[in-house]
Amino acid sequence: MLDPKDRHILTIGLAGKTNEDTRINVPIDDNFTTVLKRIRSGEKDIFERFRDNLLIEIVSYWNDQRLKNDEPTAQEVSTPVAETKVADSKPVESPKTAEVSKAETTEKQRSTETAALNFADFSSAVAEYPKFYVEKEADAAVIYEKNSDEPRKLAEISMTAENQFTIEKALERKYKVKLTLIPLIEQFAATAISER
Fold first, then answer.
1. How far is CA 76 from CA 47, 79, 117, 125, in A?
2. Segment Disordered: which positions (predicted)?
């Protein structure tokens, strides 16, 4: 329901619960009101397209608010454990190659997740997203989205300082893309300048 005092805040709560702890206030921006108008006008398939995105956005906002208040996002559940006596048995020897390969695979995954990204790898990773590309300028790498009119700037990563980047509002509105692209931008920004 809309907050009667401030029409730019949507109050969402659990069904049947009336206490303040189960409610969150979500600010409504222009994009939200535009989508609501399109749903009300009966535009075909608009509700289905934005339903999942809205749900993801509300859940992430809810979790952000709970983390700010230092509240756990999940409640701890304790399950009683029955004591059972373990019978003594001979350990079965298994081939060690499987254990080694699993350990090597996990180590490789860890190293690639935190590995330095050079510009070529970063630009090819960004190019995997439809309509996205990276241009290298004198002091920054800029991510653009191809549009019919002119390219839209989505993010800018400094090429002169580490961990310095700017994410534009246009990228923050792309719900599913931002979950994977922003960590990629952060990884590239964290890469040492000499390794880019």
1. 35, 10, 38, 38
2. 70-112
Q: Is 104 a domain residue?
A: no
Domain membership of residue 88 (yes or no) is no
The 10 Å CB-count burial string (b at 16+, else e) for 96-134 is eeeeeeeeeeeeeeeeeeeeebebeebbebbeebeebeb
Pull the structure tokens for residue 167: 């994410």
Do 177 and 129 meet the contact criterion of CB atoms below 8 Å apart? yes
Inside any domain, residue 76: no
SS3 144: strand
Domains contained in the chain, number = 2
CA distance 41 to 36: 9
As a whole-number percent, the residues of the chain with pLDDT over 90 amount to 23
For residues 46 and 118, membership in a common domain is answered with no
Note the pTM of the prediction, 2 decimals: 0.43
Q: How many CB atoms lie within 10 A of CB 4?
A: 8
Q: Provide the domain limits for residue 27.
A: 9-68
Judging by DSSP bridges, how do beta strands 23-27 and 165-167 pair with one another? unpaired
Place of tokens 């993010």: 155
